[in-house]
Design goal:
The complex is a heterotrimer of chains A (about 675), B (about 80) and C (about 55). Chain A has 32 helices and eleven strands. Chain A has about 675 residues and is of the alpha/beta class. Chain B is an alpha+beta fold and about 80 residues long. In chain B, about 30% of the residues lie in helices and about 25% in strands. In chain B, strand 3 and strand 4 form a beta hairpin. Chain C has one domain. Chain C starts with a helix and ends with a helix. Chain C is rod-shaped. Chain C is built from two helices and no strands. The longest helix of chain C has 28 residues. Classes of the chains: A alpha/beta (about 675), B alpha+beta (about 80), C mainly alpha (about 55). Chains A and C meet through helix 2, helix 17, helix 21, helix 25 and helix 31 of A and helix 1 and helix 2 of C.
Chain lengths: ~675, ~80, ~55
């Protein structure tokens, strides 16, 4: 079995290539840090396993996601490294390539985005490059699938056993460095049983102050390196190595460079950027884009479609199911479980699929086009006041899809404290699971301003997150970090298939949840509302859920919740936020949104409805998020803290909104 | 500040003083192929000392204003 | 007999739901999303690597 490791700078299209050469597919975006874990897949019809690793700028990691790559090199034994590079930025991409070539495993370099390079009027002579670097080179343009089949064939036909024999790349470092490398690696070979090329690579990485390698050396007591540490650092060898590599790249590229005559350099990117990253318009454009997103999801596409689905479900489907069950002799309690429980609850949540698909399609479009990096830039000034990095904004935006993925994406943040803060504030981002309940309430109470109300909820979530971030910054004494460097990728013309994939990738979780957690939550609430202390009850007012809800009512009435049903629904929401809406359908005994909306009219005022939405936005992270906070922070303390603090914040805010709102309206 | 920034947009500078930056920032700039002597073009400023978009080797990146000030050193 | 079948089906549904809830709590403990399989196989490998290092 051959294993291929995909490595390269961020945003060079590794994941796009991964998706095209393997059977499985992973999630793609046009910004740095899409892949935060490694993913594996098989090349179609073969036993070759490809591992997609997070993008890295060098083997020396600054962030947690970048250390995945170097740890992979230390613990796994790939047969081939496929180094994906952005042909237009070859100079800096080759800095990483050199590190990989020194490692000794056969490398294939894919010059991706070759079209961008040609458009800029430059081309490289591939044989020259290949000869100088001592490895095989393929040109690709993954977005259009150009060169992909050649690349795949090359990977399949690699005679890996013979390639092993090929010597690793050896640069002519300055004499002093060369000597240091030779001495240390000879000792490593003799005393630690390493292969010469691996020892050499390890030494170079050690001299280069690679944090992971330095730890590795201490852990494995590699004395030849440890003893020389002061000497290496004092002599500033790291800098000398960098300069040698740069000089090598410059000479290689100038030897291979060819100038193309025809250069129609239409700069789409700079034209779009004059508006998108305009110093003054930048933020308004950012807000407008979000408004448009909700307008599409709710007013224009989502809700109208959702209404259709709903009338189908509450009308023909429920009636037919009920008749069918009756005809085959199902008893009333089973009919109630299936029709009022499963169909009403699970089906009820599924009718919100159009809104969720529409929203995810919009987010995927933004990701694919390259807007996200700009969003980070535009918001950086605000984030800086709060003591966070514009980059923290990206995990937060991903959190709109699912807080779990948002927290995972926080791995791209360099500073540990900032990462912790981003993890703690991520649950305040309004994830898609909360969308059904918003949708239900805005349709009931704010039919004319659906998009606006949802937008306000989303921005309230952001505002709370940012305020908390500021608070944590003061508590943790976080110093203003300066590591804020974002690449602005060239805009892509969005491709329908990639957007569709992104949408499906994000939405399928929702569909899948309908069969698992939403189903479970629905059955649970059905049980709680049909059984009481005295057993099966016909009057829901004597059920467990009523008892529980009524008991808590005094606590919740100051924030405008007057019905015990809502309180019970909130409890089940901890399983997953979608369950709130399905629970409401079950508790109010209705399969139809229209009927539910009518019931709401007698229980809520617009103000209390808004207060409830705010409470739902903030109150407690769902099970999955709680688990992720635990695994990412590695402590139960933060989990408990996160749950309690969000409850407190949710209660306080909705209390204020309800009390003040009631006075005003 | 706006006045100064207006006049230097699209101007070229030679990168210097990378040594003065903190290690992670320096490391990241190096990985992006930016080193003392690289050619840097200013593309855009954000108000209130917000980030600055610069272009080096046909590649646009955003950096903090503070970093930018150090990179262009005495040339501003 | 009808009663028995009715009870059986109800029990299956409830049992299934109970199993799902159990699965969710188990999954959540490991920091996985209940719905999206956020690269579970890859995560297994990372866990393995983590154990090896310890």
């Amino acid at each position: 079995m051959t294993t291929v490791a995909l490595m390269g700078n961020p945003n060079t299209g590794k994941t796009t290539i991964f998706n095209q050469i393997t059977d499985s597919y992973a999630y793609v975006g046009n910004w740095t840090g899409v892949t935060v874990e490694k993913k594996m897949g098989n090349i179609k019809h073969s036993k070759v396993v490809v591992t997609d690793l997070p993008g890295i700028y060098s083997l020396n990691p600054i962030t947690k996601d970048e250390s995945v790559a170097i740890n992979y090199l230390l613990t796994n034994d790939a047969d081939v490294i496929l180094n994906v590079t952005n042909a237009g930025q070859l100079k800096r991409n080759l800095l990483l390539s050199i590190e990989l070539l020194e490692y000794g495993t056969p490398v294939i370099i894919a010059l991706n985005m070759i079209d961008d390079l040609k458009r800029s009027g430059i081309y490289y002579d591939i044989p020259t490059l290949s000869k100088r670097l001592g490895c095989h080179i393929e040109t690709t343009n993954a977005r259009n699938k150009d060169g992909i089949s050649q690349l795949r064939d090359k990977l399949l036909s690699m005679p890996t056993d013979q390639l092993r024999e090929k010597p690793a790349l050896k640069l002519e470092y300055p004499f002093m460095v060369q000597q240091a490398i030779r001495q240390a690696s000879e000792q490593l070979v003799n005393h630690f049983d390493m292969s010469p090329s691996y020892a050499r690579w390890l030494t170079i990485q050690y001299i280069n102050k690679n944090k992971v390698i330095r730890k590795y050396a201490v852990h494995n007591k590699l004395t030849p390196l440890l003893e020389q540490k002061e000497y290496y650092d004092a002599q500033n060898f790291e800098d000398k190595i960098f300069k040698t590599r740069l000089a090598f790249i410059d000479s290689t590229l100038s030897a291979a460079q060819e100038n193309l005559t025809d250069t129609k350099n239409v700069e789409m990117t700079s034209k779009i950027d004059s508006i998108i990253t305009n110093p003054i318009l930048g933020l308004p454009v950012f807000i407008a884009i979000f408004y448009l997103m909700f307008k599409i999801s709710f007013d224009w596409i989502g809700t109208p479609l959702s209404d259709q689905l709903n009338s189908l479900l509450s009308g023909p489907i429920s009636t037919y199911a009920d008749h069918f069950l009756a005809s085959i002799g199902a008893m009333p309690f089973l009919r109630s479980l299936i029709v009022d429980g499963v169909i009403a609850g699970v089906g009820g949540v599924l009718t919100f699929i159009p809104q969720i698909f529409a929203l995810f399609a919009c987010i995927s479009l933004l990701e694919d086009s390259g807007y996200m990096a700009r969003a980070a830039l535009v918001t950086d000034r605000i984030m800086q006041t709060i003591g966070l990095n514009g980059k923290s904004f990206i995990p937060l935006i991903i959190g709109f899809g699912c807080n779990v993925t948002g927290i995972m994406a926080a791995r791209t943040i360099e500073q540990p404290k900032e990462r912790l803060i981003t993890t703690l504030i991520s649950p305040f981002m309004s994830c898609s699971a909360r969308l059904p309940i918003y949708s239900l309430f805005v349709a009931a109470f704010f039919p004319r301003n659906q998009a606006l109300i949802v937008l306000s909820i989303y921005f309230l979530g952001i505002a709370v997150a940012l305020c908390m971030a500021k608070f944590y910054q003061i508590i943790f004494h976080v110093e203003d970090s300066t590591v804020f460097i974002v690449e602005l990728p060239k805009y892509h013309i969005p491709r329908l298939d990639i957007i569709w994939r992104g949408t499906w990738d994000k939405s399928k979780g929702f569909v899948k949840k309908a069969g698992t957690v939403i189903f479970a939550g629905t059955v649970l609430i059905w049980l709680l509302s049909n059984f009481g202390p005295s057993g099966f009850v016909t009057n829901i007012d004597q059920s467990f859920s009523a008892l529980l809800g009524k008991m808590m009512l005094p606590i919740f009435s100051p924030i405008g919740i007057q019905s015990w049903e809502t309180i019970s629904a909130l409890f089940t929401g901890i399983l997953a936020k979608e369950v709130i809406s399905s629970s409401m359908m079950v508790l109010f005994h209705t399969t139809s949104q229209t009927a539910l909306i009518a019931t709401f009219g007698s229980m809520f005022t617009p103000v209390s409805a808004y207060a409830l939405l705010v409470f739902i936005l903030l109150y407690v992270p769902c099970f999955a998020t709680i688990g992720t906070i635990k695994s990412e922070t590695g402590s139960t303390k933060w989990v408990v803290y996160s749950v309690l603090s969000s409850l407190l914040i949710a209660y306080t805010l909705s209390f204020i909104i309800f009390q003040i709102g009631s006075l005003l309206f | 500040m706006q006045l100064i920034s207006e006049s230097i947009i699209n101007q070229h500078f030679s990168v210097c003083n990378i040594e003065q930056l903190d290690t992670p920032t320096k490391q990241r700039l190096h990985s992006l192929g930016i080193h003392d002597g690289s050619n840097l073009t200013v593309i855009r400023f954000f108000p209130m000392h917000g980030p600055v978009i610069i272009e080096v080797d046909h590649q646009q990146i955003g950096v903090r204003y503070k970093v930018f000030r150090i990179l262009v050193g005495g040339q501003l | 007999m009808t009663l028995f079948i009715n009870l059986l089906i109800a029990a299956i549904i409830v049992g299934l739901a109970g199993y799902e809830i159990f699965k969710i709590t188990q999954k959540s403990k490991q920091g996985k999303c209940a719905g999206c399989d956020y690269k579970c196989e890859a995560k297994l490998m990372v866990d393995k690597a983590r154990k090896q290092r310890n």
